[in-house]
Amino acid sequence: MESIFHEKQEGSLCAQHCLNNLLQGEYFSPVELSSIAHQLDEEERMRMAEGGVTSEDYRTFIQQPSGNMDDSGFFSIQVISNALKVWGLELILFNSPEYQRLGIDPINERSFICNYKEHWFTVRKLGKQWFNLNSLLTGPELISDTYLALFLAQLQQEGYSIFVVKGDLPDCEADQLLQMIRVHQMHRPKLIGEELAQIKDQRVQTVDSDEQTLEVNDGPGILDGEEEDLQRALALSRQQIDMEDEEADLRRAIQLSMQGSSRNIPQDVPQTSGAQLSSEELRKRREAYFERQQPPPQQQQQQEDPPAQLSHPREAPTTSSRVVGSDTGDTSEEDMLQAAVTMSLETVRNNFITEQKK
């Protein structure tokens, strides 16, 4: 379709684009169309002056802006019609009674000019195929013969005025070429605004994709370092909690052992109330406990049987505790602590049995 002449929209010069796309060449410029518009304005002024230049109608007409053109580049149907008369072409309203009485099939025509408000565009047959040469499109749009009548009817429903171009159009290269070959359109052209919006969206998506790529490239290193620091902090926290739990368990065991043997503590040994005992108080209680467990020196020499098991004030334990030999006087601090722990476990077990019996 490169041989087809197609002017794209510039400003509001759609009337100029419509005429040039119809004639397939740069036949008209804004200056030439403005000249035609001024000529029409002068003809209208002269007709109004026939009723008197002092009349109210004439003064009102003079004060009004031109109805054939404006500063934006719009030109009226009268300007277009006069421009086509130069080439011996005439415009007939497609849906007028005069034309409808002719009963002509649209595909047997050569071209149409369509207008809605201030926009003009051409639909023309080149060779044996129809093309929509709207200047708002990115290129010519192929229209099949079967779709042409439906396309024109749709334009009428949308409020378009359609004019049939009567007369012989000037020869053009595209018409001669398409008389010999037929073209096939793989992709329909888009509106210029849609194409610009699509290009803008593609640019935005490209920028977003680049930013995401940078985030993906920079992110893992930072995340890995933060994750390692978090894991180390959690591990240290768990270790600290475990150490505190073990220390608390040992302290509770020693306290239970002291509570279980509180009945046998002499009156001269002070007792400390409350759940927490200091290290000095625990040491004193352990020493008092083991002093009571040691027999007098005379009895220790006469005794031949194995030393008796540690007894509980309430009930004899089923599991034997640590045996205290004849050398208990030399009991080390570690042995004292072990004995306290053993006694605490026995106390807990006996308390549990007692609770079950209740």
UniProtKB/TrEMBL annotation:
Residue intervals of the Josephin domain: 1-180
Chain positions covered by the region annotation Disordered: 261-280, 290-339
Organism domain of life: Eukaryota
Enzyme Commission number, as recorded: 3.4.19.12
Q: Which reaction does it catalyse?
A: Thiol-dependent hydrolysis of ester, thioester, amide, peptide and isopeptide bonds formed by the C-terminal Gly of ubiquitin (a 76-residue protein attached to proteins as an intracellular targeting signal)
User: Transcription among the record's keywords?
Assistant: yes
- Active site located where? C14, H119, N134
**Subcellular location(s) of the protein:** Nucleus
Question: Polar residues composition bias: which ranges?
Answer: 261-279
User: What keywords does the record list, in alphabetical order?
Assistant: Hydrolase, Nucleus, Protease, Thiol protease, Transcription, Transcription regulation, Ubl conjugation pathway
Biased composition of type Low complexity is found at: 299-309
**UniProt name for this protein:** ubiquitinyl hydrolase 1
Can you name the source organism?
Pipistrellus nathusii (Nathusius' pipistrelle)
